[in-house]
């Protein structure tokens, strides 16, 4: 006779779920940390409603609705504001993943399909810059200093490759040994391990390659990280942090006179938008960005839609006939 599984409180499954994300799913450290953060809030909510011992089989659609209300109205960020809809969805997606984990182990619980995500406005999904804005930002770093050369090289690499910030900060000097080839017209290829430990190729333009060479030539150390924090005196911890890069990008944008908020991900969006504007197809951009699903890349339809409109206006008989 098969032994029936003893059901535990749903919060007790969070740690096994995180172990599963690391060992079986092979998710990146950042994703694991995010899931841990998002599910910690779900545990906190169970305490708020005095039901921290809730069993997976007891979870209902009413509970999910009340949790969504908590995320939208009650929970406050560190700055004291409410969570945006995009951030709310991150917490809900983590809970979905936990429920899928339970279902895969034949633990009775609510179907993850019962968790509906908050609808986002289309203008919340993407922000990008015009090429002239990028050019203005590139003028900001002080090229007479090692830090300025580093910052210029970072921005050039972002715009050339469309890398995620986590991918860029993890680069090491020895990965770019091929830059010793000083062919000024060559586009270089580099294989990186991206999100979900997915290996993909990124491309470094001749201009970005030259700025990386200039930056590396200015280095007087033998440290491993490609981009270093010059204020750190410890060679083991001097890899430039994502937060430092975010602050640098935001600072350059402000000094360049750009009114909107600019982040490293804005440069990634700009990279994709630039490719599509110049004729790249959505599938190719999907590969270049490292998206597993083309649906993720479809946030850039604002560009493809405009191109289709331009093509219609240029070639459709109903538009061309009235110009004669």
Name the features.
single chain; 324 residues; mainly alpha; DNA polymerase, domain 1; hpI Integrase, Chain A; 2 domains; two-stranded antiparallel ribbon
What does it look like?
With 324 residues, the protein is mostly helical. It has 2 domains: 10-119, DNA polymerase, domain 1; 131-310, hpI Integrase, Chain A (Orthogonal Bundle). It is 51% helix and 4% strand. The chain contains 14 helices and 2 strands; from the N terminus they run αααααααββααααααα. The protein has helices at 14-23, 29-48, 61-74, 85-104, 131-138, 146-161, 165-169, 206-218, 242-255, 264-277, 282-289, 294-297, 301-315, 317-320, and strands at 188-193, 199-204. A two-stranded antiparallel ribbon has the order 1-2. Strand 1 and strand 2 (199-204) form a beta hairpin. Helix 2 (29-48) crosses helix 4. The N and C termini lie far apart (85 Å).
Helix content: 40-55%
Spatial extent as radius of gyration: 24 Å
**Poorly predicted sequence stretches spanning 5 or more consecutive residues:** none
Termini, distance in Å?
Answer: 85 Å
Label the structural class.
mainly alpha
Q: Name the CATH homologous superfamily of the largest domain.
A: Intergrase catalytic core
Count of the domains? 2
Classified by CATH, the class of the largest domain is Mainly Alpha
In round numbers, the mean pLDDT is 86
Strand content: under 5%
**Main sheet attributes: strand count, strand direction, barrel closure:** 2 strands, antiparallel
Task: Indicate the CATH architecture of the largest domain.
Answer: Orthogonal Bundle
Shape: globular
Q: Based on DSSP secondary structure assignment, what is the total number of beta strands?
A: 2
H/E topology pattern: HHHHHHHEEHHHHHHH
CATH topology assignment of the largest domain = hpI Integrase, Chain A
Count of alpha/pi helices:
14
Strand order of the largest sheet: 1-2
């Amino acid at each position: 006779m098969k032994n029936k599984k003893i059901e535990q409180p749903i919060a007790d499954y969070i740690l096994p779920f995180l172990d599963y994300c690391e060992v079986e799913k092979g998710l990146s450290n950042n994703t694991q940390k995010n899931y841990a953060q998002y599910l910690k809030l779900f545990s906190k909510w169970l305490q708020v409603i005095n039901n921290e011992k809730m069993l997976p089989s007891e979870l209902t659609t009413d509970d999910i609705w009340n949790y969504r209300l908590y995320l939208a109205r009650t929970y406050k960020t560190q700055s004291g504001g409410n969570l945006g809809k995009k951030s709310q969805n991150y917490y809900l997606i983590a809970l979905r993943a936990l429920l899928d984990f339970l279902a895969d182990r034949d633990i009775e619980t609510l179907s993850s399909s019962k968790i509906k995500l908050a609808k986002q406005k289309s203008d919340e999904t993407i922000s990008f810059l015009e090429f002239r804005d990028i050019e203005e930002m590139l003028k900001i770093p002080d090229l007479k200093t090692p830090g300025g050369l580093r910052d210029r090289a970072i921005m050039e690499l972002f715009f050339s490759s469309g890398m995620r910030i986590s991918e860029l900060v993890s680069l090491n000097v020895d990965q770019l040994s091929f830059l010793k080839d000083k062919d000024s017209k060559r586009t270089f290829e580099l294989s990186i391990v991206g999100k979900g430990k997915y290996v993909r190729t990124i491309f470094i333009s001749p201009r970005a390659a030259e700025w990386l060479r200039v930056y590396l030539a200015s280095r007087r150390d033998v440290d491993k990280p490609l981009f270093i924090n010059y204020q750190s005196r410890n060679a083991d911890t001097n890899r430039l942090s994502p937060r430092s890069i975010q602050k640098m990008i935001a600072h350059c944008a402000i000094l360049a006179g750009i009114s909107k908020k600019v982040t490293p991900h804005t440069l990634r969006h700009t990279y994709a938008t630039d490719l599509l504007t110049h004729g790249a197809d959505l599938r190719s951009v999907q590969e270049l960005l490292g998206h597993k699903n083309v649906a993720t890349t479809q946030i850039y339809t604002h560009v493809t839609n405009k191109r289709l409109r331009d093509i219609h206006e240029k070639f459709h008989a109903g538009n061309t006939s009235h110009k004669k």
